[in-house]
Amino acid sequence: xxxxxxxxxxxxxxxxxxxxxxxxxxxxxxxxxxxxxxxxxxxxxxxxxxxxxxxxxxxxxxxxxxxxxxxxxxxxxxxxxxxxxxxxxxxxxxxxxxxxxxxxxxxxxxxxxxxxxxxxxxxxxxxxxxxxxxxxxxxxxxxxxxxxxxxxxxxxxxxxxxxxxxxxxxxxxxxxxxxxxx
Length: 182
Prior knowledge:
Residues 3-178 form the N-acetyltransferase domain. It holds the Pfam family Acetyltransf_8. By secondary structure, the chain is of the alpha+beta class. Helices cover 34% and strands 28% of the residues. It is built from 6 helices and 7 strands. The chain has helices at residues 13-21, 23-29, 35-46, 76-83, 109-124, 140-148; strands spanning 3-7, 53-59, 62-71, 93-99, 130-136, 152-158, 169-176. Strands 1-2-3-4 form a 4-stranded antiparallel beta sheet. Helix 1 (13-21) crosses helix 3 (35-46). It is globular, with a radius of gyration of 16 Å.
């Protein structure tokens, strides 16, 4: 699958709102979907005022998902929460992701998006030694996509869930930067 990524712009907010309202996304992201909430939460990254990167994922020319990528050191509280469960190397990155259209789930697109963003991370963030991804243990499709993308489970621990209906149990997945020449 040919996945490309580009930064989210304010013109993408209506699409993000639509995706965040989809039941399969809303279940795990639990995000406010008013125009004001989407602008408030995604605007700073779109304008470059926030250190995280919101990336729109495309399959061919069709937008299919969202990836949020950040350096853990830019979010000290989150870093401390993860470090209580697994060792977190200096420079570690994290990602979060969604596939917006429910008709596109279960088809390997999420795995392809994860592979694409991981590959770009090694190029665009040369100091990143690894990518760590926490996922709610109950979200089997998400952690299975991580496994299929080559990440390995490195820990289990209690983290604050995005959706308060979820248990605190999370799996932590990790992929390390490939050795030079591989």
